[in-house]
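Lab notebook, design round three. We kept the backbone fixed and only want residue identities now. Task for the bench partner: fill in a sequence for the structure below.
Input structure tokens:
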């Protein structure tokens, strides 16, 4: 089998087990940690994820590659490639999310919302912690959890991001600017690619 075929088989098997975890346990932190462990197991063999299959864009920017997605757009798994200096401001997901490392470090900052939601477009956040996602570990998020990510590695990073619903179907995500204390609807990610084979 080619690397792509081996990866597709491993991903299919992992996603099958992940569907079963959600079916049996629902959506909670313990279930998401079990999903995280399945994805960490998937990434143990890094030969399934050669860097050349997940390049930066032609202009050298970060990129997102779809690895799996059900017909109803559930259980969506992506390879997220970060260019040096990649940064995503604080945001929620409106669905469960799990991130595990393949190559490089991805700094996750965690936040809680501290305003009373009374004023449209206004939000205040308090940073509650940090965690560096790298090969062999990961983080989990319930739909309302808020985090920001950044990468500073000189080489492109690759991490697996899995969502209960596909990125291009998350129409109500929120993105925050802690400096000016604003919140708005996050733009839908539509430039999702297929891995190079």
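Proposed sequence:
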């Amino acid at each position: 089998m080619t690397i792509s075929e081996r990866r597709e088989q491993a991903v299919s098997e992992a996603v099958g087990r992940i569907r079963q975890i959600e079916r049996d346990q629902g959506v909670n932190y313990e279930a998401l940690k079990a999903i995280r462990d399945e994805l960490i197991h998937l990434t143990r063999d890094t030969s399934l994820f050669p860097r050349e299959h997940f390049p930066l864009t032609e202009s050298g920017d970060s990129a997102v590659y779809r690895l799996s997605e059900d017909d109803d757009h559930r259980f969506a798994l992506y390879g997220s490639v970060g260019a040096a200096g990649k940064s995503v401001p604080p945001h929620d997901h409106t669905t469960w999310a799990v991130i595990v490392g393949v190559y490089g470090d991805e700094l996750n900052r965690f936040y809680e919302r501290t305003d009373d939601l009374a004023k449209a477009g206004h939000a205040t956040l308090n940073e509650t912690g940090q965690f560096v996602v790298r090969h062999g570990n990961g983080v989990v998020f319930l739909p309302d959890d808020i985090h920001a990510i950044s990468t500073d590695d000189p080489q492109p990073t690759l991490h697996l991001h899995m969502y209960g619903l596909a990125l291009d179907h998350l129409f109500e995500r929120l993105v925050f600017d802690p400096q000016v204390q604003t919140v708005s609807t996050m733009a839908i990610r539509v430039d999702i690619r297929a891995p190079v084979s």
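Keep this in mind before ordering anything: Residues 3-191 form a domain with the Jelly Rolls fold (CATH 2.60.120.10).
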